[in-house]
Amino acid sequence: MPPLPQDSFMDSLRDPVVRDLAWVIGSPGLLDETWTAYAGRVVDDAWCRTQLNTSAPWLTELDNEPRNLHDFIAQHPTRRLGQYFESLIAFWLAHMPNTQIIATNLQVQNAQRTLGEYDFLFRDADGNICHWETAVKFYLQAEPLLEQRAFIGLAVRDRLDIKLDRVFQHQLELGHTPAGRAALPTGIVLKKTQAFIKGYLFYPAAQAGKPSIPIPGVSDNHLSGWWTRHPVSPLPQTTPDSYWTILPRLRFLAPVRLDAEASVMERAEICAALDTHFAVSDESVQVIELQRKMDNSWREATRGFVMCSKWPIINT
What we know:
By secondary structure, this protein is of the alpha/beta class. It has one domain (7-307). 27% of the residues lie in helices and 26% in strands. The protein contains eight helices and ten strands. The chain has helices spanning 7-10, 16-26, 45-64, 67-74, 81-95, 160-169, 178-183, 267-278; strands at residues 100-110, 113-123, 129-141, 151-153, 192-204, 223-229, 243-246, 257-258, 285-292, 298-307. The longest helix is centred in the N-terminal third of the chain and has 20 residues, at 45-64.
C-alpha cells in the first residue's frame, strides 16, 4: 500500500477512531477526478488534503480527548463498514467551520416507491448547497484486465463498474428528477452534486502491486493491497521479520498502528489462524503485515485479503 501524503501527521494519531476520521478526510479517493465522465462530479484529492491540513489541530485535540467522537459513533451502532464511514463523515461535517448539514439519508419516493436517497445534503462555507453520494469500497481484481469490470467486491455481486454506473447515472441524478426536487426541503436548490468515494483496490499477490497502466476512471493515487486464495504458502511480505494481525471489519480504514505490547502473530501463527478459519468458513479475511518501529510500536507495511480456495463463489 502506498503511503498517504499526510502519513507523518496521521502516524502521530494514536486513537483508532480518530485515525479513521483523519483517513476519511484526507485519504486519496478511488476515482479519477479528471476523467471526462466524472469531471466536476468527484470530491477531489487536493480539496481533501487541504481539509486534512486545516483539520489537523482539531484532530490532534480529539486524539488527546476522543470522548465526543466515541460517544457520537456509539449513538450510531453498526456492524456495517459503510454506515461507520457515513457516521465519520457526519461527525466531520458537523464540526466543519461555516458548514451546515441539512439532511442525511433523505429518501426520494414516488407513489410509495423509494427511488433512492440523498446521502448528505449540506451548505458549505461558500454558501453552496451540496449533495454528496458517499461510499467506501474494497474491490479485488478478479481478471487480468485493466477495466473497471475486472474488480469485484467481497460480496461478488458488487462490481466496480456497476457501482459507479449507479452512482453517476442514478444517484447523482436524483436532484434533476421531479421526485428528487420534491424531496428537497423547502427553499433548497442544489448547487454542487459530487461523489465522495474512497477505499482500496486489491491486486493478485503474484502481480506485485498496481499496474503501470491506469484503469479508466480510477485514480492513479488510489490505495491498494494484495489478495490471494487460501491455502497461502507463503504469505506475501516485504521483509523476512514481518509480523501479522487480522483486522475486524470496522478497522478496515486507516493504516494500522499498534502499541508495542499488542498481540501480533509470526508467519506460522497467522497461517495456522487462517487454516482454522477456513476450515469452518468461506468468509474473507483481511490481514495486515506489520513492522516494528524504533519506539517498538507496530506499523502497517502492507495489507491483503485472503479468500477461500473457491473464490469467487456466485450463489444462484
